[in-house]
Amino acid sequence: MALDELIAVVAKLRDPESGCPWDLKQTHASLAPYALEEAHELADAIEHGDNNALMDELGDLLLQVVLHAQIAKERGAFDLGQVIETISAKMQRRHPHVFNPEGPARSWEEIKAEERAARGETNGGLSAQLQRKVRGQPAMAAAMLISKKAAAAGFEWPDLDGVWAKVEEELDELKEAVASGNRAHAQEELGDVFFTLINLARW
To answer: CA-to-CA distance for 116 and 132, rounded, in angstroms?
Structure first.
C-alpha cells in the first residue's frame, strides 16, 4: 500500500547508517515550524482551487505526520499505527450518532468533557479551555478563536453598534496610555485595541 511505501522511505531517511544528514538531525521541535508552513500552503491551495497543488501539499503535510511518528517510534513512544488507531477511535467515539445511532444522544463537547475527565484533567472553566485551544496558533488566529468561543459562551455585544463603541473606548484608553509614557500600559492597551478589532472583523 502507498502509505507503507512512504513509511519505508522516511525510515530510510532516518537510518543512522545510510540516512540523510538533514533528516537525521531533526526533532519534533525542529520540525514544528515546517508543519505550520505546510498547513498554510495547504490552505492556500484550497483557497485557489488548485487540485494539483492540493494533492502536492497534502503529501507534504502527510510527510510531516510520518516524520513525527518515525521520530516517536525511535524513542519508543508510539508509532504511526498507534496514531491512526487513536484518531480512528476518537472519531468513532465523538460521532455516536453515526457509529452508535441506537445509543443516547450526546454533544461533541459533552464527549470531550468525558474524555478530559477520564484523563484526570479538570475542565478549568472557559479560560483554561481557550488556553488549550489556542496554544501554538498565530496570534490573530488565536484571537479570532477566543472571540468566537467567548461569544458562544454568552460574552457578546447585542449589536454592531456596541462593538464600535468598544473600539472607540479602547482607542481612547490607548491614547491615554501612550500619552502617559508608560510603555507596558500602552502595550496592554494596544492589545485590547487589536482584540476589539478582531471582534469587529468577526461581526
So the answer is: 12
